[in-house]
Automatic annotation (TrEMBL):
PANTHER family named among the record's database cross-references: CELL DIVISION PROTEIN FTSA, CELL DIVISION PROTEIN FTSA-RELATED
Top-rank taxon, per record: Bacteria
Pfam families, A to Z: SHS2_FTSA
Cellular component aspect of the GO annotation: cell division site; cytoplasmic side of plasma membrane
NCBIfam families per record: ftsA (TIGR01174)
Protein name: Cell division protein FtsA
Residue ranges occupied by any SHS2 domain in the UniProt entry: 10-173
GO biological process, one term: cell division
Keywords in alphabetical order: Cell cycle, Cell division, Cell membrane, Membrane
InterPro entries the UniProt entry points to: ATPase_NBD (IPR043129), Cell_div_FtsA (IPR020823), FtsA/MreB (IPR050696), SHS2_FtsA (IPR003494)
């Protein structure tokens, strides 16, 4: 009987114009990923990175996932999807907040990240990911985790990834 993929396992899925690939791996204690299974099948229903036949794309994804599940002897419950194409945009932004009680709190970190991500995107484009890159507290730069540091101003530098809303809506249907 197939085991359900545990939290240490990761599943990557790439839906390309020529093929769909699913990879199941487990993260070892030293951080190395051990590949447990791979599934691949020709991609149907995608042309130049755009979905042209949703049912065909779903079928291709299901076949690749089933093949990876069979090889890894597990049941895949979720995936991390790799996406590329002209519909993807990325940019760097920053946002800041004043530090209220002299030490940086989680709420202030969240507010700085929110401020960095509230930019005007073109019509029909929506934000997919806000990826924190680094923080600055006053003149201290290149901080990875500012929680508990003292200062008066917190600045968050982020990498934003956005895509066309119609593409994102089609992706969610899958």
């Amino acid at each position: 009987m197939a085991k359900v993929v545990e939290t240490k396992a990761i599943v990557g899925l790439e839906v390309g114009t020529s093929k769909v690939v699913a990879v199941v791996g487990e993260v070892l204690p030293d951080g190395v990923v051990n590949v447990l299974g791979v599934g691949s099948c020709p991609s149907k229903g995608i042309d130049s990175g755009s979905i042209t036949d949703l049912d065909a794309v779903v079928n291709s994804i299901q076949r690749a996932i089933e093949s990876a599940e069979s090889m890894a002897d597990c049941q895949i419950m979720s995936v991390t999807l790799a996406i590329t194409g002209e519909h993807i945009q990325s940019l760097n932004e920053s946002g800041f907040v004043p530090i209220g009680e002299s030490e940086v709190t989680q709420d202030e970190i969240d507010s700085a990240l929110h401020n960095a991500s509230t930019i005007k995107l073109p019509e029909g484009v929506s934000l997919l990911h806000v990826i924190p890159q680094e923080y600055a507290v006053d003149r201290q730069l290149n901080i990875k985790n500012p929680l508990g540091l003292q200062g008066v101003r917190l600045n968050a530098h982020v990498h934003l990834i956005a895509c066309h809303q119609d593409w994102q809506n089609n992706l969610k249907k899958q």
